[in-house]
Amino acid sequence: MCGIVGYVGHREAYSIIIKGLKRLEYRGYDSAGIALLNGNLNVYKKKGKVSDLEEFLGEDKHFLNSTIGMGHTRWATHGEPNDVNAHPHYSSNKDLAIIHNGIIENYSSLKMDLTLRGHVFLSDTDSEVFIHLIDDIRINNNCSLEEAVRVALSQVVGAYAIVIIAKDTPNQLIAARKGSPLVIGLGKNEFFIASDASPIIEYTNEVVYLNDQEVAIIKDNLLTIKNIEDVQMTPYIQKLELELEAIEKGGYEHFMLKEIMEQPKSILDCMRGRVDSVRGHLVLGGLNEYLYKLINAERIMIVACGTSWHAGLVAEYIFEEFTRIPVEVDYASEFRYRNPVVREGDVLIAISQSGETADTLAAIELAKSKGAVIIGVCNVVGSSIARASHAGAYLHAGPEIGVASTKAFTAQVTVLTMIALQVAHKKGSISDHLFRILLAEIESIPDKVSTVLKLNEKIKYISSIYKDAKNVLYLGRGYNFPVALEGALKLKEISYIHAEGYPAAEMKHGPIALIDKEMPVVVIATKDSSYEKVVSNIQEVRARKGQVIAIVTEGDTQVAKMADYTLEVPATHEALMPIVAVVPLQLLSYHISVMRGCNVDQPRNLAKSVTVE
Ligand code: F6R
Fold it and tell me: Which residue ranges make up each domain of the chain?
């Protein structure tokens, strides 16, 4: 939530910042703003997207000679999206400016205090309080900006990634983080700051990920990192492995379509070097040290949010079936506040594409404090959740930029399946024969997903028929129940059509009342252990004149006779079917969204990385 970019060096800052903000727009697009230092400290900001800011600034870019500045793209929390609430925010005398990602929880008491001391606030944001607090400390204690920032950080409660710029120090940017990500790019006589590496990658591949409660001072071509107790830290410089093409649309109209279409590759990438069915090999390097904890766990807890939670539900079925270890799946936001029973030796698997989701991070911290071992399943390398975990497995699915998660889901299920099979094999809860069969089946999934993608035109046609639906029901059973949830989430988040996912058998306990001739029902009816029962559920829908769009296994003739439309997917083991069966649902939601004229990659009110609770 909210994207941050900063630059100081020898190049013209404006273009670097604007380009960086466009890359980070997936994090929020309620407003955009920029601060540039060139003798004066000038702030320009506008409600809407980065392109609205550019339009507002017009042709006359008199600030193009500035070589230091920062920019922000906002996902609103405190204060409606408008020009005033847009970042950056000035201090009272306009000597300082701040950009902030996160939430300052005690902002109202701080604001009251600062108001009594004469500070005048222009916006409704918590972020503006931050800069007034820093300014107040700086003036009253007659201290340096760096010191004032450190003192202010010890007074604020909440999450933040901030960058501060000051009029009187033309070669200095100060940045700090707690709970919201921040990465610093190290160029030749230049530095970049950003919420993720995408604005940095074309300039340098050397980066430092700031840790929680660290302050970075970039001054006169030097980077110093201190903790908030003023102890100097040694920066850990990492090499980025990100390719520029991975964060560009590559000829597709939308990132979402690109990410759906690249799933054969992203799934292959996440199993590359890990699976070898011929030799009966399955290796997940990042897990090795803690594998015995999983093997000996009395139970496994899984926490995640949204689509990642759906992947967690699939994992519950897979783990229980193959490892016979009891599994509980929680929304991270519920887990963290419900005083869960966590015992020493329990294992918690945290699933997160971004690795920055605030609720998932908080659930990890809670479980850790009670002695659980944390296994992270993240896509973003070096992310907060990856770093907070004892061990884990990356997805290696490449950057996911479309706000609606697609390739991350299929990669998550692939990686979680690999983890479950490794545990089951080592534990002896599955035979070597079944282990090898399942490994071969995993290896065949990229080709099967390629086959499903060939349905694109047919799905487009079906989308044109149902694009004006008001409600859509998604039904699935067993392994396909989470797929129904995921299909419904995809549709509602990008096309704004109300959709519900249900276990097919639950329909008769309530939702069946909704079914009439206006109601499309998407049923995942692939050939598995619940197939016959799902067929009966389809009959129940037909009997009430509901329209059926069915995902079926290739060669199925039974459902084809009952459904209005069928989409045939290749057969696979039922535990792996979610990876295959979800793909047509992703395409269905994509095409419906496009046909309804919605903003597919940046749906309203959403942001890619939810770093606030
Ligand atoms: C839906 C979607 C969200 C995320 C959720 C968790 O398409 O993208 O529901 O899945 O916000 O995000 P991560 O996986 O980054 O923790």
Answer: 3-245, 249-452, 454-601
| Residue 488 main-chain phi, psi, to 5 deg | -65, -40
Q: What is the pLDDT of residues 470-493, one digit of tens each?
A: 999 999 999 999 999 999 999 999
Q: Is 47 a catalytic residue?
A: no
CATH of span 3-245 = 3.60.20.10
Where does 249-452 sit in CATH, by number?
3.40.50.10490
Name which CATH class applies to 454-601. Answer: alpha beta
Residue 572 Cβ contacting ligand 1 at under 6 Å: no
Q: Does 2 qualify as catalytic in the annotation?
A: yes
Question: 305 CA distance to ligand 1 centroid (A)?
Answer: 6
Domains 249-452 and 454-601 in one fold? yes
Element of type H or E holding 36: strand 31-38
pTM of the model: 0.85
φ and ψ at residue 469, rounded to 5 degrees: -60, 150
* 609 CA: nearest ligand 1 atom: 15
Atom 10 in ligand 1: residue holding the nearest Cα: 307
Q: What is the pLDDT of residues 273-324, one digit of tens each?
A: 999 999 999 999 999 999 999 999 999 999 999 999 999 999 999 999 999 9
Regarding the beta carbon of 306 and ligand 1, being less than 6 Å apart is answered yes
What is the DSSP code string of 390-434?
Answer: SEEEE-------SSS--HHHHHHHHHHHHHHHHHHHHHTSS-HHH
